[in-house]
Every structure is written in structure tokens, then in C-alpha cells.
Design brief:
Largest sheet: 3 strands, antiparallel
Number of strands: 3
Strand content: 25-35%
Mean pLDDT: 84
Oligomer: single chain
Radius of gyration: 13 Å
Number of helices: 1
Shape: globular
Helix content: 25-40%
Low-confidence stretches: none
Strand order of the largest sheet: 1-2-3
Order of helices and strands: EEEH
Structural class: alpha+beta
């Protein structure tokens, strides 16, 4: 199965936001959810949120492609999206 998109997690203000985005751009990304950064300072809660968002993206991909993705996570953001 080829890659159709990705789960993109972004710190934005006091929130950690999750998006479904194409591989090389955040343009037209689909907002999935967010959580206050202070709540994901705890490693276990951070992993729970990431798992929830990963499953949400898997649901979207399965609806479109008819097949659930096999994740290779985490992967760094594309170079042009990283903060300096």
C-alpha cells in the first residue's frame, strides 16, 4: 500500500494539534483534534493521544482506500515544516 497521507502533530500556542495531511504539505490538512500541551507533558498521556489520533487517521484512510494502514511511526516532519 502506498502512502496516502500522514498524521501531523503541531505545537500551536498552548495546544498540541493533530492533523491528517498530505505527505509534503500542510495545505488543506484535516484537523483531527487537540489537547493542552500541559496534559501531554506526561509521557503516558502523550502516547495515548498519539494513539487516538493515529487510529482516527487509520479510519480515514480505510474509508478511502479500503485498507487499514500499517504504520511506521513516528517519523520527523518534512524538513521544510520544521522550526529553525
Amino acid at each position: 500500500m502506498k502512502e496516502l497521507g500522514r498524521l501531523a502533530l503541531r505545537e500551536e500556542g498552548t495546544l498540541w494539534n493533530a492533523y491528517y495531511a498530505m505527505l509534503d504539505t500542510m495545505e488543506n490538512a484535516v484537523f483531527l483534534g487537540s489537547i493542552q500541551l500541559r496534559f501531554v507533558a506526561d509521557v503516558e498521556r502523550k502516547q495515548i493521544f498519539m494513539t487516538l489520533m493515529t487510529e482516527a487517521v487509520a479510519d480515514l484512510i480505510e474509508e478511502v482506500a479500503g485498507e487499514r494502514p500499517d504504520w511506521n511511526l513516528p517519523q520527523p516532519a518534512p524538513e521544510h515544516e520544521r522550526e529553525p
